[in-house]
Amino acid sequence: xxxxxxxxxxxxxxEYRTGVVVAGPGSSLTIPGxxxxxxxxxxxxxxxxxxxEVDVAADFMAGLHRAPSLATAHDVHTGVNxxxxxxxxxxxxxxxxxxxxxxxNVETAIAYAWPGIDNSWIxxxxxxxxAAGASTTVICAxxxxxxxxxxxxxxxxxxxxxxxxxxxxxxxxxxxxxFGARGPQIEARKALSLRGRSSxxxxxxxxxxxxxxSGGSLAxxxxxxxxxxxxxxxxxxxxxxxxxxxxxxxxxxxGSYHSDNVRLIGEDVSASELEELCMTSxxxxxADPAIDSRAFSSAVDSGIAxxxxxxxxxxxxxxxxxxxxxxxxxxPSSVHVAFNHALRLEELQFPSPEAWDRLARRLTPAARDSxxxxxxxxxxxx
Length: 382
Fold this sequence. Notes:
The chain is an alpha/beta fold. The protein has 13 helices and 13 strands.
C-alpha cells in the first residue's frame, strides 16, 4: 500500500451523513461491472449503498460470446441495503441523475474507473458529489502490462477526487509524482490489481477436472473442445484430470476430432502438481465442485479464470470470485463459449473473495481514518 506524502483530509462531513454512492460499469457480462457489484456487496454489509450503473458504450450488453459470471449468479440472491439505478447516456441527463441521487445524507461518493474505456462521466460525478458536500473517491483498476493504458492516463480525472485507490504500487507512485503535493491521497490495494499471471505455457492450455468415470461430462467437454477451428488447434491443449476405470473413456478421447491435442490424466494430483497446473494453464474448468474442492480452492488462490460446469443448481463455491464463469454441463455450446471467454481473460489474475471486504473497510471513513500510516513508507498491501 502507498500513502501520498500529505496530511490526512480533514473530515468536515456532518455526523448525519452516512450514505454511500457507488458509480461504475453495471453490466454483469463484463469484468468491470462484476467487480463493481462485489465492491457494492461488501460495502452494503455495513452501509446503505446507492449503486449507479454507468455503461457509456452502446454495446455493453452484447454477450453472445460471454459466459455468465459465477459471482454475479450468487449476488442475484442478495441485495439487502442496495438501491440500484441506471444513469442515462445523455451527459446532461446523467448529471441531473447524479444530482438527484447524491443528496445531503451522502457521506462518501465512489467512482470506479477502468483504464481504456470511456471514463469521462467521472468528472460529472465528482463535481456533483463535491457540490453536495460528500467525500469523493475514485478506485481504479491496475491492468496487466500488456494493456497499454495505465491509471496515469486518467490523471486529469483522478486529480479531482479527494482520494484515489489503484491496484499497484507503481501506478500509485506515478500518480503521486504527477499530482504533486496538492493532489489527492493515493493508496494501492490488492483488490484493484489484475496483474500477476505471467508464468504460462506457450500453448493455450485448458485443464478440466471431471468426476470419476463420468462419460457424460467427458463427452461434453470433448465436444466443446472439438468446436475449436482446425486452423487454430495447434495452439490449444486440453488436459482432462479424472479418475477412470476400463478403456471406454480413453477410447472416447482417442475418437475425438482433436484427440492429438487432448491428454487424459487418471492419476491423483498432488498439491504441488495442482499448483503447477494452475500456474501453467490458461484456464481451468471444474465440474460440480464441492464446497471443499481442492481444485477450485487452488484456482481461487492462483487467480485464474475458471469455468464451473454444472447441470442444474448453483454451485456452493464461487461467491465473490470474479474470475469464475458458469457453463451448462449438458450443453457443449455453452461450455465452448465459456472456454473461449476464460481464455480471453488468461492474462488477468483475479483477487480473492476476501479482498472485497478488506477494500470496503478502507473505503469506510470511520475505519480508514482510525488506521495509522507512516508517511512515505510502503506498508503491506492488504
